[in-house]
Amino acid sequence: MAVFAAGNTWQFKGWPHKDATELFAKVKGYHLQHNDEKPDQLIKTLNVERMQVSKQESKAHEVRVMAMQFWESLHKHMKRAKPHLLVSPPLTRQSSF
């Protein structure tokens, strides 16, 4: 479904893909970093969505927003690339009044 890239080439050692570039051509990729950090050079070359959070406690509420954006992004990717993996909610009987 998705892979979080840390920015280290050893992270993908032993994976069934030639390299990280091939992996992220097939799988949705994400990278989480603090907003005051410069992106890792490897991350700049990969097809990953960068998500940034603040270290400041006064902006802790932004983590929830970022988490919602992650789930929306992943769901959009799944609907487009892997709809067979999405589970439909069960049908419920509607009561008649």
**Percentage of residues in strands:** 15-25%
* CATH fold-level assignment: Rossmann fold
Helical segment count: 3
Q: Give the mean pLDDT.
A: 87
Identify the CATH class.
Alpha Beta
Q: Determine the fraction of residues in helical runs and give it as a percent range.
A: 25-40%
End-to-end span in angstroms? 42 Å
Largest sheet, in brief, is: 3 strands, parallel
Based on the structure given, which CATH architecture is correct? 3-Layer(aba) Sandwich
Shape field: flat
Order of helix and strand elements from N to C terminus: EHEHEH
Radius of gyration based on Cα positions = 18 Å
How many DSSP-defined strands? 3
How many structural units, i.e. domains?
A: 1
| Classification by helices and strands | alpha/beta
The CATH superfamily title: RNA polymerase II accessory factor, Cdc73 C-terminal domain
The strands making up the biggest β-sheet line up spatially as: 1-2-3
Poorly predicted parts: none
